[in-house]
Amino acid sequence: MGLYRIYPTCPTLAPEANLTLERVTDAPTLACDDGAACRVHSGLSTPEITAEQLFDAFTNHTSGVLMSWHYSGTNSNSGANVNRLAEFLSLDPLCSLAHLSGFNFTREMKLLDKYIEDKSNPFQIEYGWCQSTIKIRLPMEKKKFLSKADAPELSIPGVFHHSLTDIITHVFENNISQTFNMMPFEQFWTTPDHRTVRVFGEAYASPVLMEAYKEINALPRDPGDDFEHVVASIMVWSDATHLASFGDASLWPFYVYFGNQSKYTRGRPTAHASHHLAYIPTLPNNLQEIYVNIFGQPTSSDVYTHLKRELMQAIWRLILDDKFMEAYEHGIVIRCSDGITQRVFLRLFSYSADYPEKVLLSTIKFLGGCLCPCCLVKKADVHKMGMKLNMKSRLTKQCIDDFRQQRSIEEACNLIFQLGVPVGGSHVKAILDQASYVLIRNAFSERLAQFGFNMFDMFVVDQLHEFEIGAWKAMFTHLMRILLAAGGNAVTDLNEWYFFARYLS
Known about the structure:
The chain has 18 helices and twelve strands. The protein is α+β, with helices and mostly antiparallel strands.
């Protein structure tokens, strides 16, 4: 019988019916069909920009083409990059060789900066973006306040972010939504020996999305609400990134994918399946000066770490605003590009980040007594990783965002603000160290715990940072060097052990 699917009800759209190889690959040897272009999502709406306005900032059109080549290429002067420059110049009919004699890179850079400063230009950062200021409370050892709300505030400007509901609305109204699987399903494979095997290949074929779909369709409906209820499966990534080989220039983006979309489409750079959600600032450079002006002395290292944690949660409180919460609880009615009107419920499906960011997001201690943001397995038991007993422990000791955990954090927060207890003091550790929590109220917990959402479940393995270029790869490589240095049949024995382990599983 091969592969087959079981849907909870008859789907109104089967996007994979017209799927072709060209639509899920970027291989240069494959010819793209003409219809593929219309499925590329172009981002949030902006005013129309004409071709003549593209290079208005520069001395002439040729200078603009050269600057475009510079900013869209790589940092190396390779042969391929030179070929690309020749292609840039030859394919543009408005380029003139006469303009090249007077080209000056520094002058064009200054013209570009001046053009951007002029708010009348059509390329405005405000189109689709919001710029907000967040505020976090400042604790101080031996300084008592009536409550946390009475403590001094630190204002952090320059948080650039999109409205998450606006992104979802625009994407579902765009033609790209015709490739979305609005209804999850269970997929099975019947083997030649007539065994039935469950197949997991896409986010929309997962049990989690099926549970979310059943949950939203079990909700009581208002009179007249005969729309199809569907889930917008939100997959979040974040990664602080260095922008230069030398210096400290960096950027910290949050970006969103949709689990309704095939992983093959999401893996294509030209599909533009990634949607920028926010750019995160760091703590102010003059933080110590501000703190001294308020309290008369600089922050301790514990307070500085506490403020970094508060910054992350404050930004997510900003993103998970009232508009998002309304859409999470009641859904938003969207007329999709195929003409079908649906009530779309927002659900956080996964969050992928490297370990330091997961620690900030899950509000646990970095390399604390319980290392994992998903379970309470102790650091002392890490060497048991991979054993059957360890796997059972990961299931029986899962992190749960329950009332007990929330009350512990609230109690610790009251200690530092109302009694002036040190942030890293023994009283705080006595309350929180058992599970390696920190005294930060988690934004996901505040907003979503009331709906039964366990924030610890959304953190998934970051394949890139944790395996491909991460600590595990470096450690495994070092272990292989030790086995090679030991000589004998060590490597061969290890290979056989892995082979039998996979066969037995």
